[in-house]
Write a structure and sequence with these properties.
- By secondary structure, this protein is of the alpha+beta class.
- The protein folds into two domains: about 5-90, duf1285 like fold; about 95-185, duf1285 protein fold.
- It has three helices and 15 strands.
- The chain has helices at about 5-15, 60-65, 155-165, and strands at about 35-45, 50, 55, 70, 75-80, 85-90, 95-105, 110-115, 120-125, 130, 145, 150-155, 170, 175-180, 180-185.
- The strands form three sheets. Strands 3-2-1-6-5-4 form a six-stranded mixed β-sheet. Strands 9-8-7-12-11-10 form a six-stranded mixed β-sheet.
- Mean pLDDT is about 85; it is low at about 15-25.
Length: about 190
């Protein structure tokens, strides 16, 4: 796929109604175009995005593509616009949790807000749960966070170590509390 096609996808997202949407969160649930084909974009296990064998260096382009990424019932990942749908390749998880904020609130008690490698923030809770992925053969699975549109983000090494530091033991399980829920991490 050429730079021209990448630019065309970017232009499609800046179209009618863009200013009324939440920044970085297009209404993917409303878009159901036919499959346009495969695009030579790969998200590697380390969270880096590649196009035609070269890394995508523009962070704004990675953020844009992450905002239109969806995983469908077939288990495949797609970049979706109002008029196009392109299948891409993903090694492991498409996003990473690179940091988090932990604190206390009077209403809900402890909270953890995770931050992805594309700058999106999510409050761990019912809508965005922390879970242990099924990893056959892995001794110590690293937790991930369930996100919108069938996506998930795995904690990177630094975020994982920080999370372990704030974890507590409850009734024989190690985990963290956020938004009134306890999430086991091992």
């Amino acid at each position: 796929m050429s730079e021209e096609r990448l630019e065309r996808i970017s232009e499609q997202l800046g179209g009618e109604g863009a200013e009324s949407r939440a920044p970085g969160r297009p209404p993917l649930h409303l878009w159901h175009p036919e499959l346009s084909g495969e695009i030579d974009i790969r998200i590697q296990r380390d969270g880096s995005w590649w196009h035609e064998g070269e890394p995508i260096r523009r962070a704004s382009l990675v953020q844009l593509f992450a905002s239109i990424l969806r995983r469908e019932a077939d288990g495949e990942y797609y970049l979706v616009t109002p008029v196009e749908k392109w299948r891409i390749q993903v090694e492991g998880f498409p996003l990473q949790i690179v940091d988090f904020d932990a604190g206390e609130s009077a209403e809900n008690g402890s909270f953890i807000t995770v931050i992805t490698n594309t700058g999106q923030r999510y409050l761990l809770g019912r809508d965005y749960p922390l879970f242990l992925p099924d990893s056959p053969g892995a001794d110590n699975a690293v937790p991930a966070v369930g996100l919108d549109h069938g996506l998930a983000a795995v904690l990177n090494r630094a975020a994982w170590y920080r999370l372990v530091e704030v974890a507590e033991d409850r009734e024989g399980q190690t985990g963290v509390e956020s938004d009134g829920l306890f999430f086991p991490i091992s």
